[in-house]
Every structure is written in structure tokens, then in C-alpha cells.
Predict the structure.
Amino acid sequence: MTQKQIEEILAKKPESRYKYFIRTVVAEEEVWGLADDEGWLLLEDDEDDTDVLAVFPNPEFAEVFREKGEFEEFRVEVLDLYEFLEWLNDFEKEKMKIAVFPTPDFQSAVMTPERLRADFKTEFDKEQE
């Protein structure tokens, strides 16, 4: 992916990046995030003070977020989509949300696990047609 492509995608509105995330993750069957020795990077939702997991469709976007967000102690990690879907069950119980594809200035689509699961299913169904 070129720098120009990365910049163009990051310039899109959160809803457009969310759709890109769903399509890309279903196609590649991978979710990317930032992790350190203690676990995955959690951001905080200012609205209701809950933990929010930041996820990305490609490693390049996770790396841009890591660098510009000053999360040097974290590394870019991949997670199998099916394992991520299992995580969503736990997130639902814990009332956690997911920050889908945040930009370096922390603009993201914050979604519930239920919404993400439903949108993944819709995309999977499209691929089966």
C-alpha cells in the first residue's frame, strides 16, 4: 500500500473507513491492533468512560496510529478474524466497545460488539453469493 493510498483512506469519514474495515477484514480474515506485553491497547470512550479496543484493517494503518499517537511501547499485532469474533462475546459481557480504524487524531467509528458481529455476518453472506 502506498503512502498516498494510506493518506486517502485516512482522509475518509469514519463511516467510510468503517465500511472499508468490514470489507477488508472479511476478505483477509485478519484484524490488526496494537499490543504490548500486558495486552492490547485500550482507549477510553469519553462519552461513557468505557474501555475501547482500537482495531485496524491493515498493519500499515496500525503502524501510522502507533507512531503518530505516540504509542512507541506497543507493537503492531495481527489477530485471526475468527478469534476476534470470539473476543466480541467477551466484550459484549463486559460492555466494551470497539474503536474501528481510528486515525492518528483519534477519529473513529465506535461500535458495539453486536453491531460489528452483524456487519461481519452481512459481509460474509455477500461473499457467499
